[in-house]
Design brief:
The complex is a heterotrimer. In chain A, helix 2 packs antiparallel against helix 3. Chain A has four helices and no strands. Chain A is about 75% helix and about 0% strand. Chain A is flat and about 55 Å long. Chain A starts with a helix and ends in a 6-residue tail after the last helix. Chain A is an all-alpha fold. Helices cover about 65% and strands about 0% of the residues of chain B. Chain B contains 19 helices and no strands. Chain B has helices at about 15-25, 30-60, 70-105, 110-130, 150, 160-190, 200-230, 245-280, 285-300, 315-330, 330-345, 355-375, 380-385, 390-420, 425-450, 465-495, 535-540, 575-590, 600-620. Chain B starts with 15 loop residues before the first helix and ends with a helix. Chain C has helices spanning about 30-65, 70-75, 75-100, 105-135, 160-170, 190-220, 230-255; strands at about 135-145, 150-155, 175-180, 180-185. In chain C, strands 1, 2, 3 and 4 form a four-stranded antiparallel beta sheet that branches. In chain C, a hairpin with a 5-residue loop joins strand 1 and strand 2. Classes of the chains: A mainly alpha, B mainly alpha, C alpha+beta. At the B-C interface, helix 6, helix 7 and helix 8 of B face helix 1 and helix 6 of C.
């Protein structure tokens, strides 16, 4: 409830009632997304110039998380909308990330003990 | 929109088909809740009959009553029916009936979606059960381990497991839609003053359960879709001989399957959390602990799934990690149990049937919980995995736990739902018969499991030490069946000549006791302003009589337009939910016969469903 | 939709909480439908997660079994274009929503139309990609070392000759046998199975989004969309952006890594 109230207080500071960003902002976000995508495509060749695989994976995941955050915050309006929506999405996303990580760990562990493949 | 004509049943004027029509098109959460409960009880009885046949087969060694194949089908369908068609929908049914009443709402957030969930559940159950008539029921167990399930069940070239796959998906859609509905209802439709920390614990736990459904079901949806592709389109996700990985099935299934356990048990926790304080005539002890430990159980519930797989060879580190998280989950569960005991402690106990069942729940659930902690230890699990010890454990939790709590709930809320009391005398008989029968059936399973009787085996040899206790178990199973028969008799007696119930027969404190028995279509004429966790006690004993403003009758045109006292907007009845559910079920039959012209079934089914969805959308646009 | 008797009381109702159709405020001051959609999106996230996890854990297994190497078949150029198309469609989508909020009728139609067109372009690109993959082939090469150790590799047919020579060089004395060329379909390898199911379900979601947006566009052409019910556009938009979001993940995890 307190969160809700502070959210309304926050809204009150926004210029418009709805507090949605302008067309300008949307286009700027798009440009940023475009640039990140271009960097991602370049980053996919990191191993080809001799950089280690982990650095490529980390770079790509960080860049895609950044893209996702921008889409969710601006295009899906979570930055300007109720925190409840953020909480709902974050709960699902948190469980999702947990699931992927544990699956990868389980299979990597199996592989390291030579048991799983084939 | 102005007021809609809510068809108020005029007794005596309705022909039988009008009555049926009013139920088929209803969007009233109370009617839908009752339909859920009745349907689920029918499935509960069918699952029970399956169990009785299993017990008859096992009554003596080297028995030949039924074939091994039928035995496989029966235990698979018994598990599937009890999980998806009995316990879950009984929880959903009670939740449907009670959640809007308890939070002071007129209906669920999406009444038509609510009806859709019910029809999908009914048709999904019908779809699964129709497998008996259409070539044989699923036979690879309720968790359908691949590659057995991917190859076509025990007997190849049957589509029995496709029934299971598609049925689970129909029921899964119903569950996800229903849970979204519960979440929005609880978050958004609370009466003034009904803050989160004033909500009844039943509502809390239904909310938590709904989140579990929303987050856990997608995993089994994916697993079953992949299984369907393996079975019908030649992929090899789970088929080791073609490179697939059966472990993947187990992980995807149990990522759903373990939260599913909490989906079944958390609403019963909510039921007993309502019953203990009312029947000990004192407030619940540790309200916040019960609510938040429910949330903790939900989160931890997503971290323990592999404890179902200790024996498949994940390796010591994986087993140790999942063992640790599984032991951890005993903490919030224990917190709840101590709170319930503390609620009863020192209360002036009113030993009516609901409390009998709720206390029975407490005893039996603790036994199931303790054997659960034992099973969370890999060394012990290695010894007893796939033995009757496991069967004993989950029947103490789900029968001793969930079913006892659900009967407590039936006896508690029956007068509210139907305006008649259930007989205390019959209720007491039912309780003792069920309690004794339950322990006779499942307690010896601990011992049999320990001495090595495997589960899911059609028969056993004479002289292994299994004979006597198996006979005892079969006798216990028939005692349970007799207790259920007493319940049905009790219902019939109550229906015919039951003592009329007043609005508040138990001196309850949650909002549903503040309206009539049964409640009107719009639930409440007026709602007290909620100032505590016990609004109806406040009204009765608190001396404050504050209500929200009644609706303005004049605003909605002529007052004789409908029979509701105020112009409360209720959505009109709708025929579209059953159409959508019907279309999706036709499509499921199409998918079942995909290689013999089923494509047409899919096309026709999806067309019907789309028409229904378009109808729903246009109705939604109108209100 | 239903509302509780009580919701016109002030304690909870946020002043801005009135739905677009004039419903009374809700307990959280949030629109019921939007709250439901976000819950649904959360659930859908788990659906795609299960598919992505399946792809990722099957990938090493696929390689060890001599399945095709994804990088031999998944062209980054085409996917980058597809990613660009979907990002672009997210922009047009949000502009359509913006136009709806400002009651800009021309803008609503223009941007909705553009979003649908981009969605169709994406689907066309995916059909092209599937078709192309389906007609390509890979060969499973089995290398048996003199000490009996067996290694398998899946090699794209168009690389076969060059790779075979290289393999001979790296494994002196080993016996190398090769399978008949197999098409890259969803039944010939774990890569095919997991890839086609994952991207196929994403494509299905895009298609559903296109249908949804088309319905909204028809409403807009009839003049039934305005700032009063901009939620209709916003809902379709949330779903659309979510589908784009899934592609952001697929693009990175499946195509680039």
């Amino acid at each position: 409830m307190a969160e809700q109230r502070s959210h309304q207080a926050e809204l009150a500071h926004m210029p418009q009632g709805h507090a949605a960003p302008s067309t300008r902002t949307y286009i700027n976000i798009f440009v940023v997304l475009f640039v990140i995508t271009a960097i991602e495509v370049l980053a996919a060749y990191m191993t080809d110039i001799g950089l280690p695989l982990w650095s490529e994976i980390v770079t790509l995941i960080l860049l895609s998380v950044l893209k996702g955050v921008l889409v969710v915050m601006f295009y899906m309006h979570l930055r300007f909308d109720s925190r409840w929506f953020t909480a709902l999405f974050a709960a699902g996303f948190g469980i999702a990330v947990f699931m992927v990580i544990v699956f990868l760990l389980l299979w990597a562990y199996k592989r390291s003990s030579g048991g799983l493949v084939v | 929109m102005a007021t809609t004509a809510v068809p108020v049943p005029h007794s005596g004027e309705q022909s039988w088909w009008q009555t049926i029509w009013s139920w088929v098109t209803t969007v009233d959460h109370k009617k839908i809740g009752i339909m859920y409960i009745i349907t689920a009880i029918v499935f509960f009885i069918s699952g029970g009959l399956e169990a009785l046949i299993i017990r008859m087969q096992l009554a003596r060694p080297e028995n030949n009553l039924i074939s091994p194949q039928l035995y496989n089908e029966l235990f698979t369908m018994h598990g599937t029916t009890m999980v998806f068609l009995a316990v879950m929908p009984l929880n959903v049914g009670l939740g449907n009936y009670l959640v809007p009443l308890m939070i002071g709402a007129n209906d669920m957030a999406y009444p038509r979606l609510n009806a859709l969930s019910y029809w999908l559940f009914l048709f999904g159950g019908f779809f699964l059960t129709s497998s008996y008539a259409l070539g044989g029921a699923p036979d690879a167990g309720w968790f359908a381990y691949a590659p057995l399930s991917a190859n076509g069940g025990v007997l190849p070239k049957r589509n029995a497991m496709d029934f299971w796959v598609l049925g689970i998906n129909l029921l899964g859609i119903a569950s996800i839609l229903g849970s979204i509905n519960f979440i929005v209802t609880v978050l958004n439709l609370r009466a003034p003053g009904m803050k989160f920390n004033r909500m009844p614990l039943f509502v809390w736990l239904q909310l938590v359960t709904s989140f579990l459904v929303v987050f856990a079901f997608p995993s089994v949806t994916v697993a079953t879709i992949l299984l369907y592709f393996d079975r019908n389109f030649g992929t090899a996700f789970f088929l080791p001989e073609k490179g697939g990985d059966p472990m993947l099935w187990q992980h995807l299934f149990w990522f759903f399957g373990h939260p599913e356990v909490y989906i079944m048990i958390l609403p019963p926790f909510g039921i007993v959390s309502e019953i203990y304080p009312v029947f000990s005539r004192k407030p619940i002890f540790g309200y916040a602990f019960i609510a938040y430990s429910g949330v903790a159980i939900a989160f931890l519930g997503f971290t323990v799934w592999s404890h179902h797989m200790f024996a498949v060879g994940m390796g010591p580190w994986a087993n140790a990690a999942f063992s640790a998280t599984s032991l951890l989950i005993a903490v919030p569960t224990g917190v709840k149990i101590f709170n319930w005991i503390a609620t009863l402690w020192g209360g002036s106990l009113n030993f009516k049937t609901p409390l009998l069942f709720a206390i029975g729940f407490l005893f039996l659930f603790v036994i199931g919980g303790i054997s659960g902690v034992m099973l969370a230890l890999p060394p012990l699990d290695y010894q007893v995995t796939d033995s009757y010890f496991v069967v004993a454990h989950f029947h103490y939790v789900l029968f001793g736990g969930a079913i006892f709590a659900l009967f407590a709930g039936f006896y508690y809320w029956w007068p509210k739902m139907f305006g008649h009391m259930l007989s205390e005398r019959l209720g007491t008989w039912q309780f003792w018969l069920m309690f004794i029968g339950m322990n006779l059936t499942f307690m010896p399973m601990h011992y049999l499991g320990m001495i090595g009787m495997p589960r899911r085996v059609w028969t056993y040899e004479r002289g292994l030490g299994f004979d006597f206790w198996n006979l005892v178990q079969t006798i216990g199973a028939f005692m349970i069946a007799a207790s259920i028969a007493i319940f049905i008799w009790n219902v019939i007696v109550s229906w015919r000549s039951g003592e009329a119930a007043n609005d508040d027969p138990w001196d309850g404190h949650t909002l549903e006791w503040g309206t009539t028995s049964p409640p009107p279509a719009h639930n409440f004429d007026r709602i007290p302003i909620i100032r505590s966790r016990r609004p109806v006690w406040d009204l009765k004993y608190g001396g404050r009589q504050e209500f929200t403003e009644p609706r303005d009758t004049k605003a909605a045109g002529s007052a004789d337009e409908d029979d509701t006292p105020h112009s409360i907007h209720l959505p009109p009845p709708s025929f579209y939910p059953i159409i959508v559910a019907f279309g999706l079920t036709v499509a499921a039959y199409g998918l079942l016969y995909i290689h013999s012209g089923g494509v047409w079934g899919i096309v026709i089914g999806l067309s019907i469903a789309s028409t229904g969805i378009a109808g729903l959308a246009s109705e939604a646009a109108r209100d | 939709m239903a509302q509780a008797v009580a919701h016109d009381h002030g304690e909870h109702g946020a002043p801005g909480g009135h739905g677009p159709t004039g419903h009374p405020p809700t307990s959280l001051g949030l629109n019921n439908r939007k709250l439901g959609l976000w819950t649904f999106i959360s659930s859908e996230a788990l659906f795609f997660t299960a598919l992505v996890a399946t792809y990722l854990v099957m990938k090493p297994r696929n390689l060890a079994l001599g399945g095709p190497r994804p990088e031999d078949f998944l062209g980054i150029t085409l996917t980058a274009i597809l990613a660009f198309i979907l990002l672009m469609s997210s922009l047009t989508m949000v502009l359509a929503h913006h136009a709806a909020e400002h009651n800009d009728q021309r803008g609503i139609r223009l941007w909705l139309g553009a979003t649908i067109l981009l969605g169709l372009m994406f689907l066309g690109g995916q059909v092209y990609e599937f078709n192309k993959l389906w007609s390509e082939h890979f060969v499973t090469v089995t290398i048996t070392e003199p000490d009996g150790k067996i290694v398998r590799e899946g090699i794209a047919e168009h690389h076969l000759d060059a790779e075979l020579a290289e393999l001979q060089e790296h494994h002196p004395g080993a016996t190398i046998t090769q399978s008949a060329p197999k098409a890259v379909t969803w039944t010939t390898s774990l890569f095919g199975s997991t890839f086609f199911v994952l991207t196929g379900f994403h494509g299905t979601h895009v298609a559903i989004g296109v249908v949804w947006l088309t319905v909204v566009l028809i409403m807009a052409l009839r003049g039934a969309i305005s700032s009063r019910n901009s939620l209709t556009v916003e809902m379709a938009g949330l779903y659309w952006h979510f589908v784009d979001l899934v592609w952001v993940a697929i693009f990175t995890l499946i195509y680039l890594i």
